[in-house]
Specification:
alpha/beta, 5-stranded parallel beta sheet, 8 helices, globular, binds thymidine-5'-diphosphate
């Protein structure tokens, strides 16, 4: 039996990594076979692509191909084998980020992005997509407080991040059965209560031996 596949999506600094890792720790403590992974850079090979994408000087028109290259390796080496052995896979970002950032944000053709990304996924689709949604202005405050080195995407202006948010919300509205939209302006605990409620109905009931 194929495992359950849950993707976490959202703008930069929306807290999805905190939420997905918390769910991972909870499920592991329950004895479930669970894998936490991310894009870009979910494999050793992908780490080099990640570095190029986030801190390199590549032209924007090459982003989609690089994200999809990373995705193909990630599906082949991590996601597919884990799902085949029946593990629950929690993935921080996936195709929906390419649609939102390269499509919505950068303005590249969404049909083309879907085609390229679909090839990379090779027929595998998540069972659930959890969107931690937040106004980019709130996210900007978080960025400034943290004082970290920003990636090429985090450095882009507010207009870009508003377009990314709109794309995520549009994608969620088009497929409400698969997507859940959570208000990420709340506390970590409040958001996590909702994450658990969304994931729980899908999770395996039996514990691994
Ligand atoms: P990362 O440091 O992993 O950020 P986060 O913790 O917010 O996920 O950086 C990933 C960045 O790459 C993020 O700004 C979103 C962007 N991105 C795309 O533009 N397209 C994509 O397909 C993916 C997966 C990410």
């Amino acid at each position: 039996m194929r495992g359950i596949f849950i993707v976490f999506e959202g703008g930069d600094f929306c807290g999805k990594t905190t939420q997905s890792k918390r769910l991972y720790e909870d499920l592991k403590a329950r004895g479930l076979d669970v894998v936490w992974t991310k894009e870009p850079g979910g494999t050793p090979e992908g780490l080099e692509i990640r570095q190029k994408l986030l801190h390199g000087n590549i032209p924007p028109e090459e982003e989609t191909d690089l994200f999809c290259q990373d995705r193909k390796i990630h599906y082949e080496k991590v996601i597919k084998p884990a799902l085949e052995r029946g593990a629950t896979v929690l993935c921080d970002r996936n195709e929906y980020s390419t649609i939102a950032y390269q499509g919505g944000g950068r303005g590249y053709d969404v049909a083309e992005i879907k085609r390229k990304s679909g090839e990379a996924r090779n027929g595998i689709e998540p069972d659930l997509i959890i969107l931690t949604d937040c106004n980019p202005e709130t996210l900007k405050e978080r960025i400034e407080k943290r004082g970290e080195t920003l990636t090429r995407f985090e450095k882009l202006g507010m207009d870009f991040h508003h377009r990314v948010r709109k794309s995520f919300l549009d994608q969620a509205a088009q497929d409400p059965q698969k997507w859940r939209v959570l208000d990420a302006s709340r506390s970590i605990d409040e958001i996590y209560e909702d994450v658990k409620k969304c994931a729980e109905p899908l999770l395996p009931k039996t514990e691994k031996k």
